[in-house]
Amino acid sequence: MTTHQLTAKGIRISYIEQNPASLKTIFFIHGNSTSSATWKKQFSSDLLKGYRLVAIDLPAHGSSEASQEPERDYTLAGLASILTEVVQELEMGPYILCGSSLGTNILAEMIPFGIDPSGILFAGPCLMGVGLGMEKIAIPGVDISPLFKDESPMEAVIQYGMTASLSSDPEDLEIFKTDFNKVQSPFRSLFIGSIFSGNLGDEIKQVNSISCPLAWVFGADEKVVDPNYLDVVDVPKWREKVFKIPGASHLVNMDQPEEFNKILAEFAGEVF
């Protein structure tokens, strides 16, 4: 696994890559206040060793630069534009897009930019659309405010981390805390401001406009987003189902990597 950088929309974007000789690529996009390290259990999986794996750090996250035009770039459309440019620069053949949490929103928002993946897998999806806002999909009473504040007490950050992930691996919480603290201000505050101002597309409509297979994977014990909300939403579903993995919360790929990797490998084997 090696770390590389490229420039997209004037921002130096960092990404990690494994198996660069493979022509079939899986691109991974992490969520709010995490990083490419979120996908370490996918990079170490024997089930995925035949694919080129590329995990990208969002702007102002991980080892990527902050934007010099944050009001433009720290929106869903801005992030989607940047990630589309990154994927188009790095693609060498057929590819799958895999996103977690906010990464799933970015994937949906990338569709109008003309992406052409062989398939898309949404992990811990939180897509919104007309009549389907954040208040409809979030589990009531869960404090997700650290994701939208530039400064939060570490106690609140840890509490959210332990809500979003049920992993028994103590290294996962340390990675989450490190990633959270690396996020460069004012990403979180500008991003939530853009959402409250309605600066997002109809993501449900957008995923219905693409013809490739779409896989949906929740943690069955999700504590951030209602894992049942897509059951009755009209979106294409690979194998005609929404996958729900027991023992996992919002960061399902970290909590239950073996089961998640099995689903991803079966999806990749079928769509490539």
Structure, described:
By secondary structure, this protein is α/β, with parallel strands linked by helices. The protein has one domain (about 1-270): 3-Layer(aba) Sandwich (Rossmann fold), CATH 3.40.50. It has helices at about 40-45, 70-75, 75-90, 100-110, 135, 155-165, 170-180, 185-195, 205, 250-255, 255-270; strands at about 1-10, 10-20, 25-30, 50-55, 95-100, 120-125, 215-220, 245. The protein has an 8-stranded mixed beta sheet with strand order 1-2-4-3-5-6-7-8, sandwiched between helices. Helix 4 links the parallel strand 5 and strand 6. It is globular, with a radius of gyration of 17 Å. The model has no long low-confidence stretch (mean pLDDT about 95).
How would you sum up this structure in a few lines?
The chain has one domain: Rossmann fold (3-Layer(aba) Sandwich). Helix content is 35%, strand content 17%. The protein has helices at 40-43, 70-73, 76-90, 102-110, 134-137, 154-164, 170-182, 187-196, 203-207, 252-255, 257-271; strands at residues 2-8, 11-18, 25-29, 52-56, 95-100, 119-123, 214-219, 243-245.
- For the record, the CATH class is Alpha Beta
Number of strands: 8
Shape: globular
Give the topology string: H per helix, E per strand.
Answer: EEEHEHHEHEHHHHHEEHH
CATH topology, by name, is Rossmann fold
Query: What does the average pLDDT come to?
Result: 95
- How much strand content do the residues show? 15-25%
Low-pLDDT parts are none
Straight-line distance between termini:
23 Å
- Could you name the CATH homologous superfamily? Alpha/Beta hydrolase fold, catalytic domain
State the domain count.
1
Helix content: 25-40%
Structural class: alpha/beta
The second-level CATH architecture is 3-Layer(aba) Sandwich
Reported for the largest beta sheet, the result is: 8 strands, mixed
Count of discrete alpha- or pi-helical segments spanning 4 or more residues: 11
